[in-house]
Write a structure and sequence with these properties.
single chain; two-stranded antiparallel sheet; two-stranded antiparallel ribbon; alpha+beta; 2 helices; 21% strand
Length: 56
Amino acid sequence: MAYTITDACISCGACEAECPVSAISAGDDKYVIDADACLDCGACAAACPVEAPKAE
């Protein structure tokens, strides 16, 4: 099950830098995760200062 990024995202980019498969990219108003590429590893959630990435 892939992670998603909630509206709590402050667009800091910390999650993008930690993703081992580059599944995270900047969206219009927050970062987004490509569900097909996500490994469900949780690295993004661990790096996020506002706990925006959540497991679905």
